[in-house]
């Protein structure tokens, strides 16, 4: 491993060669769900860093990894991970990329930061937003086939229950049809601490994780793909 603000680590398995890149992060520490939450809470409560700013930094880190592509499907559920995805989608729209955002679940039940980013997207590019339903699922599959990159922003480190119903169908469709998948923080459907697949999991080509490596990225590398550990401004 090389750590100079940017570092590279190659891991080899039976049929897996993986690259881990550290962008502005000097620590190779692996951090589980609860410790990561405490780090984020400390940043917000002790240092007064708005959670929305951390989300924006995370989104820009993802954009940095995908900006060379031109057509995107961004799949978001109504939580923090989905808020990251909406911010990613906004920046890609501003860069002139072709972006379709698919919302899985009730967006009005999302976190405050998710709802803020959704409202910005609704004002800025309402034609880019689609609700994923049984009726629109065929269109979703068609979009996955036609995009260059799918951004997986459904579930993050908080997922602790099996993925079922429409979210599971969405994951299965992404794996089946998307040419290239980039997951936000962790692949959706993988338990962040154990690497266990909770019903169904995204098989990403790359995962952009934030601040520290999560255990699942080492325990389930076949789902994570290449990993970028991105600086997002957490002290």
TrEMBL record:
Keywords: Isomerase, Metal-binding, NAD, NADP, Nucleotide-binding, Potassium
Cofactor(s) needed: K(+)
UniProt-annotated binding residues for K(+): 81, 152, 188
Enzyme nomenclature, EC number: 5.1.99.6
PROSITE patterns: YJEF_N
Entry keyword Endoplasmic reticulum: no
Catalytic activity: (6R)-NADHX = (6S)-NADHX; (6R)-NADPHX = (6S)-NADPHX
GO molecular function: metal ion binding; NAD(P)HX epimerase activity; nucleotide binding
Residues that bind (6S)-NADPHX: 80-84, 156-162, 185
Cofactor annotation remark: Binds 1 potassium ion per subunit.
InterPro entries: YjeF_N_dom (IPR004443), YjeF_N_dom_sf (IPR036652), YJEFN_prot_NAXE-like (IPR032976)
Superkingdom, natural source: Bacteria
Domain YjeF N-terminal: start-end pairs: 36-235
Function: Catalyzes the epimerization of the S- and R-forms of NAD(P)HX, a damaged form of NAD(P)H that is a result of enzymatic or heat-dependent hydration. This is a prerequisite for the S-specific NAD(P)H-hydrate dehydratase to allow the repair of both epimers of NAD(P)HX.
Alphabetized HAMAP family for the sequence: NADHX_epimerase
Family: Belongs to the NnrE/AIBP family.
Protein name: NAD(P)H-hydrate epimerase
Gene it is expressed from: nnrE
